[in-house]
Amino acid sequence: MAKNKEAEGIEPTEPEAVREEEMSSEEPQDLEEQLAEAEAQAAEYLDGWQRTQAEFANYKRRQEAEREQQIALASTVFLAKLLPVVDDFERALATLPEEIDQLPWSEGIFMIKHKLDALLETEGVAPIETEGQTFDPRFHEAVTHEETDGYEDGQIIGEVQRGYMLGERVLRPALVRVAKAPAD
């Protein structure tokens, strides 16, 4: 560039002359070192950016999981509060006199109970089986232990209150009467 200006009869200005001298005096090794430093810095920035992006993706996943967990917990609390209503319906229908169970209003009550059961089923709520089962403290709560013949020790004699599962989780344990071996 300076050669072209000299050929034209124009002298290079002071800063251009200094720059040309600096460029010519720099060795290729210095330029390679600067390039290596710049590449290392660019790699460091890229790594930091990628880590930040991964951390943000993990944050979004955690937030979504927590949100789903809160929804499930709210659903569990609501369903647990609904179970006493189901119990009341079952007791009311069990004591309904035979002479009025064919009346339209009593059939309506049966239909409401059926809808309530269907709602629980769609939400994943299922009753805990107790009949003929062996007592399991994960699913059952013993109300009494009774000495009785005809049952093995630890076998459930009867159900006092139905228990329910929500998926694999116990929503409410079944209250049961448990047989114990007669004393000799």
Tell me about this structure.
By secondary structure, the protein is α+β, with helices and mostly antiparallel strands. Among the domains are: about 10-65; about 125-184, Head domain of nucleotide exchange factor GrpE (Nucleotide Exchange Factor Grpe, Chain A, domain 2), CATH 2.30.22.10. It is built from four helices and six strands, in the order H-H-H-H-E-E-E-E-E-E. A hairpin with a 2-residue loop joins strand 4 (about 165) and strand 5. The relative contact order is 0.08.
Query: Strands of the biggest beta sheet: in what spatial order?
Result: 1-4-5
Main sheet attributes: strand count, strand direction, barrel closure: 3 strands, antiparallel
Low-confidence stretches: none
Classify the helix fraction into a percent range: 55-70%
Could you tell me how far the N terminus lies from the C terminus, measured between alpha carbons in angstroms? 116 Å
The succession of helices and strands, N to C, reads: HHHHEEEEEE
Overall geometry comes to: elongated
Tally of helical runs: 4
Q: Strand pairing plus helix content: what structural class?
A: alpha+beta
Oligomer: single chain
State the CATH superfamily name of the domain at 126-184: Head domain of nucleotide exchange factor GrpE
The gyration radius over C-alpha positions equals 40 Å
Query: What is the CATH architecture assignment of the domain at 126-184?
Result: Roll
In terms of DSSP E residues, the strand content is: 15-25%
Total strands: 6
CATH topology of the domain at 126-184: Nucleotide Exchange Factor Grpe, Chain A, domain 2
